[in-house]
Amino acid sequence: MKKQIIKLDINNQIYEVMVSPTDLLVDVIRKQIGLTGTKKGCGQGDCGACTVLIDGKAQLSCLMLAIASEGKKITTIEGIANQETGELHPLQQSFLDHGAVQCGFCSPGMILSSKALIDENPQPTEEEIKHALEGNLCRCTGYVLILEAVESYVEALSKGEV
Amino acid sequence: MNILHEFEYFKPKSKKEALELVKSKGSSAKVLAGGTDLIIQMKEKMIKTDAIIDISDLEELKGIKCEEGKGAEILACTKLVDIEFNADLKKKYPALTYAVSQLGSNQVRVMATMGGNCCHSSPAAETPAPLSALGAKVVLASLEGERELAIEDFIHGNRKNALKEGEILYKFILPEPVKKSACRYGHIGLRNAMEIDCANMAVNVELEEDKATIKNVKLVMGSVSIKPLVSEAVPKVLVGKKLTDELIATTGEAAQSEAKPISDVRASAEYRKDVIGALARRLVKEAYEAAKEA
Predict the structure, then answer these.
(1) The domain spanning residue B16 has which CATH number?
(2) Are residues B112 and B157 in the same domain?
(3) Which of A139, B87, B108, B219 would disulfide-bridge B234, Cβ 3.0–4.6 Å?
(4) Which residues contact B105 (CB under 8 A, 6 or more apart)?
(5) Are B199 and B222 in a shared domain?
(6) Alpha carbon distance B75, A54 (integer Å)
(7) Do the chains contact at A27 and B1, CB–CB below 8 Å?
(8) Which residue range is the domain that position B33 belongs to?
(9) Strand ranges (DSSP E) for chain B?
(10) What is the pLDDT of residues A96-105, one digit of tens each?
(11) Which of B2, B36, B101 is nearest residue A22 as measured by Cβ atoms?
């Protein structure tokens, strides 16, 4: 099959990768680019572990063709911490502070889905947070702590603390 | 390592180019709108296609027009999330925006389109029932021109619809809701998100000047037949009458008598029949009360 070189804009860096049309974005991000923070769970769009931000919106990289992502701004979990200092994004820090991480497999998706929501709606209600996170499954039953972590970040944001 | 069958990828830059491709590739190609159904079907080997025509970023196929007194037009590739959060649509067609908000998950709604939901033509799809209850039409476009169909005539059965080779679903046309009418949508699934409905329903009730007598009612059931099922029995029960508890009960039975559900992994046919009765009773009452205020 004909492979071609495409340019992907991931975390503000341009990567030139050789892909075939059948390559899924999640595989290119993980295997070719080596950013393994994006997880591959169900591969069916059900679990949300593969969530990345595309043009600021949470999308499923396991159902997205890499070739179709050319020209879009892709943000993975690696891209939200401070690139120079390595300091975590305050939302990531909030997940740590609240113990909202157990095995950690769902965390990148949870954090990116939350970030997409808050970037668009800085003062979401509890219901709005739940609605935005309903496509991210946690199998360590950590939903309460995750919700608390997001709410705490929202509160800090409204007080101008972060 | 590739789990998808090999295909050629085309990304047309205009509607015209898309129509040319759809025509020249014919049945060897599949149209990609959001991919949340198509890519899964390709992974599952339910679909093998030699070409993908990606229209997901085609701005010409996206947009919502919803003006006071003029109904609405929703272009087929409009992302579901843009429908869900459109304030004008939410005000005028709350049943539709609610149904959209209950589809998949946020990530799915960011990617998926209403055109895709209807063209996929799953009996369990969320949007066809409210679209049908609201009297929506679809416009199909090809290089030869356009044609218009009622949504219930567009969907023919499980994964079957009226699209001919060379055609794409171009847009949805929703009529302006008539005065003293209201539409409501409900569904039952096994969990809140990322479920496939075991049954869904939309009910549109229009009242007479007295705000009590039912002038028209359209009840559409999803996931209990191979296509959205428009009830013939329920209007016979309700039109010309004022709603009473007894009539509500009869309405539930009437809807149940028409539903032809199957048993599958999501629910038994028996349970689905129960659900249809409950949804019909609940939604007719809700739409009736809302129509009084409309």
Answers:
(1) 3.30.43.10
(2) yes
(3) B219
(4) A45, A48, A134, A135, A136, B193, B194
(5) yes
(6) 22
(7) yes
(8) 8-53
(9) 8-10, 29-32, 51-54, 64-65, 72-75, 137-142, 145-150, 155-157, 160-161, 168-174, 181-188, 199-207, 214-222, 229-230
(10) 999 999 999 9
(11) B2
Beta-carbon contacts of residue B289 (< 8 Å; ≥ 6 apart)? none
Residue range A4-79 forms a domain whose CATH class is alpha beta
Domain boundaries, chain A: 4-79, 90-158
* Residues of chain A found within 8 Å of residue B36, distances taken between Cβ atoms: 45, 60, 63
Q: Which of B11, B36, B193 sits opposite A63 (nearest CB)?
A: B36
Model pTM greater than 0.90? yes
How close is the nearest chain A Cα to the Cα of B234, in Å?
34
Q: Tell me: do B195 and B253 sit in the same domain.
A: yes
Rounded (10°) angle between helices A107-120 and A90-97: 130
* ipTM reported for the complex, 2 dp: 0.96
What kind of architecture, by CATH, is found in domain A90-158?
Orthogonal Bundle (1.10)
- B104 min Cα distance to partner chain A (Å): 7
Task: Calculate helix-pair angle for A143-158, A107-120, nearest 10 degrees.
Answer: 30
d(CA B273, CA B84) in angstroms, rounded, equals 29
| Helix (H) / strand (E) containing A79 | none
The Cα B145–Cα B14 span in angstroms is 16
| C-alpha span between B127 and B205 (Å, rounded) | 18
Residue B126 near residue B200, CB atoms below 8 Å: yes
Express each pLDDT in B96-147 by its tens digit: 999 999 999 999 999 999 999 999 999 989 999 999 999 999 999 999 999 9
- Whether A146 contacts A102, CB under 8 Å: no
Q: Is A133 on the interface with B (CB under 8 A)?
A: yes
